[in-house]
Write a structure and sequence with these properties.
Blueprint (H helix, E strand, L loop, with lengths): L9 H20 L2 H8 E4 L2 E4 L2 E4 L6 E6 L3 H12 L5 E7 L9 E6 L6 H14 L7 E6 L3 H4 L9 H14 L3 H9 L8 H6 L3 E7 L22 H10 L8 H11 L17 E7 L1 H14 L3 E9 L3 H18 L7 E7 L13 H9 L9 E7 L11 E5 L2 H7 L4 H6 L3 H8 L2 E2 L10 E7 L1
Parallel strand pairs: 4-5, 4-7, 5-6, 7-8, 8-9, 10-11
Antiparallel strand pairs: 1-2, 2-3, 11-15, 12-13, 12-15, 13-14
């Protein structure tokens, strides 16, 4: 890791502490235990989740399955709720996201590109569904990262085929819906196919959403949701990013065969396999953003939630954040000082260089020039799971002195942007945000402060 620079001045440190307090409130609001407690409860012999109600006197076995960075903590919350009424279970989490459990096994696998451990764990999860009947209940726990962690290649494909295709899509800057459109048509469990494996049991899906707008078919690639996308849609995604000739031959062959109607597509709305499936969103980006606004106001800031639908190329979103900061600083609009603007969503990065970083780090780097020289302005970008891309940083800090401090060290932010090396830039300044794994994941949060 690049050595950290000296700490920021006292005033800036105090401002950063305010921002940390606001971020902590946002993360606490979407902690898996809190999310489960808000939406799932047990009243005597009844298990209540959203509008779904299950009479435990008539329910047979209860099996818990899950995948995602938060699924371990979600599983632990369910164990406390169900006690010995829970029969068995297995959840798959990203490395570093394990939690102690008693009845539900926790297995680790790679993210964002699947690995053999995830395929093996998925096989074990599917085995737990064998022999279930209509009186049994499957509780499926889904959160961000589930698409990579819950995986079984479709017939004719290998894990290597999926790994190569996933890496190509991520590097090309495809958004999560596009990536998952392809993934669903290369998998034996995504796009509603897990619901088919669980039938005829009832399925309750508890979702901690990491996708803008909470589309059930996109979150974790919708293993128990009807899939509105088709093989033809998957082909179109690869063509859109000029990847059709770069994906493995087996991938192209399968998608061509499916688009020509020679393979059955993923199950669609109205399919009987979904008749006994219920989904409940237990937490999302808006929940976190609203908690951040409430905490900022409690600290005496004029706080506004601008949007939880932020998308686009990361560096361009960074320039937008810089423009908002400059507006706050020069006109005190849309809020007077001290102000806090909160945004949420998920940007994308088109990888052009060989540097290190993630979308939040690149958003921050894109804002550096825009806020140069502005007094008492602070920007914070944060991945709510605590890990931005393939780094241990959650995001980064940017303020009016960032550019000058960089230039004094001979660092040119444009050069770092050119090679997608935001991590090295902020590490050299001592401006990485390090939180460690948060055990939740509800998209990214972006903050603009003017003190």
């Amino acid at each position: 890791m690049t050595p950290q620079a000296s700490p920021p001045p006292t005033a800036l440190a105090a401002q950063r502490q305010v921002a940390r307090t606001v971020l902590a409130a946002a993360l606490a609001a979407v902690a898996p235990e809190a999310a489960i407690a808000r939406h799932v409860r047990r009243e005597g012999n009844w298990l209540l989740a959203g509008e779904a109600a299950y009479d435990l006197r008539t329910v047979g076995r209860i099996v818990v399955l899950g995948a995602g960075k938060a699924s371990g903590a979600m599983a632990r919350a369910l164990e406390a709720l169900l006690g010995d009424r829970l029969d068995r279970g297995l959840v798959i989490v990203k490395d570093g996201h394990t939690v102690p459990t008693t009845r539900i096994a926790v297995q680790t696998a790679a993210h964002p590109v699947p690995d053999a451990r995830g395929v093996e764990a998925t096989g074990k999860a599917l085995a737990l569904l064998a022999g279930l009947g209509p009186q049994d209940l499957v509780i499926l726990l889904l959160s961000g990262g589930g698409s990579a962690l819950l995986e079984r290649p479709a017939p004719g494909l290998t894990l290597a085929d999926l790994q190569t295709t996933t890496e190509l899509l991520l590097r090309a800057g495809a958004d999560i819906a596009e990536v998952n459109t392809v993934r669903k048509h290369l998998s034996a469990v995504k796009g509603g196919q897990l619901a088919r494996a669980a039938a005829p049991a009832s399925v309750l899906v508890l979702v901690l959403s990491d996708v803008i707008g909470d589309p059930l078919d996109v979150i974790a690639s919708g293993p128990a949701a009807p899939d509105p996308t088709t093989f033809a849609d998957a082909v179109a995604v690869l063509e859109r990013y000029a990847l059709w000739t770069r994906v493995p031959a087996a991938v192209a062959h399968r998608l061509q065969a499916g688009a020509a109607g020679r393979l059955p597509d993923t199950p669609k709305a109205g399919d009987p396999v979904f008749a006994r499936v219920r989904h409940v969103i237990v937490g999302n980006n808006r929940c976190a953003a609203e908690a951040a606004v409430a905490q900022a106001r409690a600290l005496g800031l004029h706080a506004l939630l601008l949007s939880t639908f932020v998308e686009g190329e990361a560096r361009e979103v960074g320039r937008l954040l810089g423009a908002l900061a400059r507006e706050l600083a020069t006109s005190q609009q849309p809020a007077p000082r001290p102000a806090c603007l909160v945004l949420g969503g998920e940007t994308t990065v088109t990888v052009r260089g060989e540097g290190r970083g993630g979308r939040n780090l690149e958003v921050a780097l894109g804002a550096v020039a825009s806020v140069a020289g502005l007094p008492d302005v602070l920007l914070l970008t944060a991945a709510t799971d605590g890990q931005d891309g393939p780094t241990e940083a959650a995001g980064a800090w940017v303020d009016g002195t960032s550019l000058a401090r960089a230039q004094s060290r001979g660092l040119d932010p444009r050069a770092f942007l050119h090679r997608n090396d935001a991590y090295s830039f902020f590490a050299a300044l001592g401006d990485l945000l390090i939180t460690g794994p948060t055990l939740t994941n509800v998209n990214d949060l972006l903050f603009v402060y003017a003190f």
